[in-house]
Amino acid sequence: QAGLASVTEHSAMSEARRRSAGTGAKGGAKDDSALADQGATVATSESKRRLPRSSSLNRLEDMETLERAIKEMAPDKPLHSLVDSPFSSSSGFNNFRGLLNLGLILLVVSNFRVALENIIKYGILVDPVRPIEIFLSSPGQWPCICLLLMCNIFIFIAFGLELLAENFRLVSPALSCLQVGNLAALLLVPSYLILRDHPNPFFSAPTLGIYSIVFLKLWSYRDMNSWCRLERQLQLNKRSELKRNKSIASVLTEAGADGDGGSERLRLARGSSSRSSLLCYPENLTLGNLYYFMMTPTLCYELNFPRLMRIRKRFLVKRCLELVFLPQVMAGLTQQWIIPILNNSVKPLQASEWPVVLERLLKLAIPNHLIWLIFFYVFFHSALNVAGELTLFGDRNFYKDWWNSESVTEFWTLWNVPVHRFAKRHIFTPLIHRWGFNKLLASVVVFAVSAFFHELLVSVPLRMFRLWAFLAMIMQVPFAMFVSRVLRGGQLGNMAVWLSLIIGQPLAIIMYFHDYYVSLHQGKAEGAV
Known about the structure:
529 residues, mainly alpha, 19 helices, globular, disordered C terminus, diacylglycerol O-acyltransferase activity, transmembrane helix, diacylglycerol O-acyltransferase, endoplasmic reticulum
């Protein structure tokens, strides 16, 4: 209707001009000269009065609206206009959810075809009772239980050394040597027993993993208590007791003037025995405090951890059900999918048939990555949340959005927050501030420590030292530099991170399985001879 009104108005104006032109022609030259003078005056006034830019834009929009209305009234009924294609960057179109759904459907269909082909070829290989039968039938698995119980000995020794350091005010190299020796024995003793008794790697690897966690926890426990003793010694050496008393008095005076909030701070400052009071060194040196730290899902010791008020029962039940169900899924995928692929990859690797080895590697990548994702969820979300819920531990920041990582360094920072915090607090920062390392060299040391533990958790249970895991972690340093400097993060960096996870792990698994398979059959052949 607005377009029709504009067209009507435009036609009326044109008709009025034609009538005035006809009347002027009949009126003679006198009227023509008057109209000319009037037009010149109007033109002069228009040239002196310029319209603003907004008025010009509005006039342009009015002209476009008028032109559009005229086209709509045209007899050919036009359908075309100035529009870019949806895939053009200038079109502004960005809704591709349908293509994402297509990709998900293709992914599901292709993996379902591979799973169906596996079942047709090998049959049903899943046996959820088999791991339990192996554990109960073989007496070689019981040393793992004994090792877990023996772990308490090292915890008691660490606690006794801390009491010795506090009660006798010992800060000596001898005490440090005893603490370092206890930590070293915590890794050497179980490694020696596993190598001697030859338990199944299915059970010895988790046992050694628990020992590694206890090792890192006791390392943090020792460092934190030593820092507290050092801080106390510095305060005594500076003889600042009088200044400290004055500052405490001023704080208490301000607290009394703050109303209820000040009363609460005053109650805490006076050392109330209620639940909200904070521990100070050496009040934390109790066996209960140490074992609470051992049960919490963190590697960094603190005097006062954030605590919840109650256990969320529904949340706890959900996580426990995940702990029961998802490991069965992982075991089923391993039995049905991983083991046949590994068995079929030994001969091509021995015969150096590299195209076939590459095909086996790519075939192994998908199920291995799926199992790795399930393991991440089971451990970092289900298991750690169960431990945090039972201990009322409040900090549940076990992982961040590592799937959006645009660099390798960002990935290792986000995907395992407890280990990252430990490495930064107890390795990276002391190397820089105490030993004068630069950031690059300190980062290399951190990756070397991580590589040592990766190799320890693989080589000792398998009883063979090939350094594949160690080299894989060390190579993360140049790979991180390549991603950050050449690819410069962004989408390409994220794709590089995912590619390293999808391809790197299956390659290491194939190498270790080949070496383990060869060593196992060589041992059987030597025994037969």
